[in-house]
Amino acid sequence: TVDRELNLNGLKIHRSADGRAIYQLIDQGIDGYNTLKVPKGGRFKVLLPDSTVVWLNSESELRYPCNFLASARKVSLSGEAYFEVFKNRRNSFTVSTSWAEVKVLGTGFNVRAYQDDQEMETFVSHGTVMVSTDQDEKILHKNDRIHVNREGQIKSL
Question: Is 78 strand, coil or helix?
């Protein structure tokens, strides 16, 4: 059941009875970006336009396009989020942070990249990702965990 609904320029936003915010793209021609900011102590789950599911942790920010029309699917993250990426072998999925980029084809992984932290951390729960900086790059598989420092150096854990 829906208790609130809002229609904005081809985007329908409503809250389900269990409190989830649901974004539904009505007009596939929408350009632009959404930015989700999670307050301290909060958590948020969002379904991206390509069916990727993202769980955002407290004090996190995710910027993503209203529509993934281009060949690459790219989002920006500050904070921490877990991603269940919808498989699409033709269009890669990339999470960009101030430290590094994490590129995947279809997997589940966590990225922690708070601005106040000294290092970014990536953990792969299943699948494969590639983490790259200007200095280095590393391929991670299931249960791999790495840290990236501000200088772009990647350390395996």
Answer: strand
